[in-house]
Amino acid sequence: VSPFGYFDQTVPGDLLKTTLDLEPLEGDAEPSPAIAFHAALYKARPDAQSVIHTHSRWVEVLSTTGQDVGMYSADSCLFYEEQAHYADDGIQPPVDGVRMAAELRDRSVLIVGNHGAVIVEKSLEAATVKALALETSAQCHVEAQMIGGKEMAMAEAARAKGAYHRYFIPQMWAANYQRLKKSDPDLFALLAV
Questions:
Q1: Of 134, 153, 145, 127, the residue nearest 52 (C-alpha)
Q2: What is the pTM (predicted TM-score) of this model?
């Protein structure tokens, strides 16, 4: 997990490793408080190999409504029947991992009310691409609703979902990885890749 701080300043040597019971294994920085719900999600979902938590702008905006990210854009089909919601009730801990896992069940996206989202996936690549697509899909949702836009047919979203998992996720991972190598050469020099 990354330490508490600005995520865009985190480099590989900053990462911390713990057990799922939060016992430190490597690193001595203060971990992000999110580590507790990440561990709870991994425990509840043995299929999960990656948990990404974001506070991206448009997902945060949409999270204030209690709505799913709608099927307004082509890549939103990735989230067809994949979304669940979690809200802070003001009484229990605001991000309770056990409650979050119970709400998420076997889905891949948990929209956290007035907060952001958590993406749980079988690979880092799938979780990363879904986190990026969730943000653009949320932006499209908000803007489409402003002009009276209509969602795609749910049958089309269901049909396209499989193709997007097969083709879009691997292609977008590769494309974004190449883009990152160009935009952040210092990071790759640090990694010696």
A1: 127
A2: 0.90
